[in-house]
Write a structure and sequence with these properties.
Blueprint lengths: L12 E5 L6 H4 L14 H13 L3 E9 L2 E10 L15 E8 L8 H13 L9 E6 L4 H10 L2 E7 L2 E7 L1
This protein binds coenzyme A (COA).
The site of coenzyme A has 21 residues, from strand 4, helix 3 and helix 4.
Length: 170
């Protein structure tokens, strides 16, 4: 995909930084039952974001909105965590830490368009310059694998626990 000239299919789609005024509806967003193993709940993600900030580390949580409707959630990290089995590339890349579109709004192109918006944000290098954007997915998550591959992410051979790790050049 030529991401430079990529036009959003969903013109009203935009990212809103999660804050105390707008986070409540994000907590109500849900993936389908059979997707629950692929991503933490947004409440847990926001708690982790709080903890990361309290540690003076970088994190940015976003609501993904279509006009006035909250449709998804994303969270970007950068050297935010350190744990056993962590992929090494997370030490020198921006990471798509969480990403979900509510089950009611899936298969409308929101996921793909939201990645484009997130790429624009990451290319503003909010926590300093990096050469790579990283992500990971559970091996059974074929929808995420296809979405990320189509967008230009390429496996780098690492694992993050069980998850497959891939990177995109910034
Ligand atoms: C992965 C996810 C964000 C995709 O969001 P989305 O808004 O449905 O994605 P899009 O509508 O942009 O679709 C992208 C492609 O995936 C396909 N797709 C989406 N959902 C699908 C499904 N359930 N089954 C088959 N294909 C699907 C679309 O048809 C589209 O393919 P195309 O480019 O060939 O037309 C969403 O499925 C989700 O939130 N899943 C649960 C959480 C998750 O897995 N997050 C990623 C963690 S790594």
């Amino acid at each position: 995909m030529d991401r430079t000239n990529y036009e959003l299919k969903n013109k009203g789609l935009h990212l809103v930084k999660a804050d105390k005024e707008n986070f409540w509806p994000l907590i109500d967003l849900r993936v389908a039952k059979d997707q629950e193993g692929f991503v933490a709940s947004n409440a847990i993600s926001l708690a982790q974001a709080y903890d990361t900030l309290a540690d003076s580390k970088f994190v940015q949580a976003f609501g993904i909105w279509d006009g006035a409707t909250p449709v998804g959630f994303a969270m970007i990290g950068h050297n935010s965590e350190e744990y056993e089995e962590m992929a090494d590339v997370y030490r020198h890349s921006y990471c798509l830490w969480r990403f979900m579109i509510d089950q009611r709004y899936q298969k409308r192109g929101y996921g793909r368009d939201a990645l484009k918006l997130l790429l624009d944000y990451i290319r503003s290098f909010p926590d300093g310059e990096e050469a790579l954007w990283s992500t990971s997915w559970e091996p059974e998550n074929e929808v995420a694998a296809k979405l990320y591959h189509d967008f230009g992410f390429i496996e780098n051979g690492e694992k993050d626990g069980d998850e497959i790790v891939a990177v995109l050049k910034l």
